[in-house]
């Protein structure tokens, strides 16, 4: 596949790689050498979200960042693929296994939490560290507002908003910024261009539905949370997040009291607003847990 004309290779100066999966080709980047760090994105983002961390950390580490099917430069299957968090987790596991990555550090954000942490729960012996950014790993049934919105978005009006109007990249994405100045026209384009048609936006709509449909899957992950207790954890939290409830950080702290916590003065997309600070925190954490 050729580099799309809209992709700024200065902003995103990485070599394209693909893994052939059952339901399509998964795009990913693999930069640098050393200990492996796997970056797992959520919605409506793709590996572009991690570009500042990739540029910085590839100097010392091997940095792998995939695009889930339906996002970024990966294929966007219309039928057969379920787009469930569990299906994405299966794809991520296949990528890690095929690349024979060992003693990895998982960095997860948004839906990347319940996707990436499934691998850590299944293979804790192969995960050396975990970095958690504004995400969750438990049932959201008690979050009344999230359930109400998710159920509405799964209906005909929500489907229209997501598939026809590009609600996720056009309207939700800006809400994830504390300071909109960081969401420049060029950066906004890089999130909207991979999602220009209804067929290409299926992945974002399925994530909106999954907030309530995937609760049994989330709950099953949470039951196994003890498997991660001995793995060193860094929690980087954008304190001005308007997309996730403020109590999510409290939940992480309660279950993993030994985790290192770093508050970031940013919104949901702290990798964008405070890219250098996030990169430095990950590097320091890696050095402290060699």
TrEMBL record:
One of its GO terms (cellular component) is membrane. Gene3D superfamilies: alpha/beta hydrolase. Residues 36-274 form the AB hydrolase-1 domain. The keyword Hydrolase applies. It holds the Pfam family Abhydrolase_1. It comes from the Bacteria. Keywords: Hydrolase. GO terms for molecular function: hydrolase activity. PANTHER family: CIS-3-ALKYL-4-ALKYLOXETAN-2-ONE DECARBOXYLASE, MONOACYLGLYCEROL LIPASE. This is Alpha/beta fold hydrolase. It comes from Pontibacter oryzae.
């Amino acid at each position: 596949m050729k580099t799309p004309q809209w992709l700024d290779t200065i902003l995103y100066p990485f070599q394209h790689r693909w893994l052939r999966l059952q339901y399509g080709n998964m795009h990913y980047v693999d930069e640098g050498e050393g200990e492996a760090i796997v970056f797992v994105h959520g919605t409506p983002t793709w590996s572009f979200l991690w570009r500042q961390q990739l540029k910085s950390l590839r100097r010392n580490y091997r940095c792998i960042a995939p695009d889930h099917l339906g996002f970024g430069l990966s294929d966007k299957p219309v039928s057969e693929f379920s787009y469930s968090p569990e299906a994405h987790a299966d794809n991520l596991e296949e990528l890690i296994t095929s690349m024979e990555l060992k003693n990895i550090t998982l960095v997860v954000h948004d839906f990347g939490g319940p996707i990436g942490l499934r691998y850590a729960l299944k293979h804790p012996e192969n995960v050396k560290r975990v970095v958690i950014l504004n995400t969750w790993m438990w049932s959201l049934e008690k979050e009344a507002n999230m359930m109400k919105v998710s159920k509405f978005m799964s209906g005909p009006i929500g489907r229209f908003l997501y598939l026809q109007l590009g609600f996720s990249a056009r309207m939700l994405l800006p809400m994830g910024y504390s300071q909109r100045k960081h969401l420049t026209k060029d950066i906004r384009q890089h999130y909207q261009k991979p999602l220009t048609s209804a067929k290409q936006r299926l992945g974002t709509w399925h994530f909106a539905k999954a907030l309530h449909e995937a609760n049994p899957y989330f709950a099953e992950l949470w039951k196994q949370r003890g498997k991660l207790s001995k793995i060193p954890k860094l929690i980087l939290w954008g304190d001005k997040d308007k997309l996730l409830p403020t109590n999510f950080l409290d939940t992480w702290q309660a279950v993993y009291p030994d985790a290192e916590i770093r508050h970031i003065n940013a919104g949901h997309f702290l990798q964008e607003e405070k890219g250098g600070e996030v990169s430095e925190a990950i590097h320091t954490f890696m050095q402290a847990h060699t």
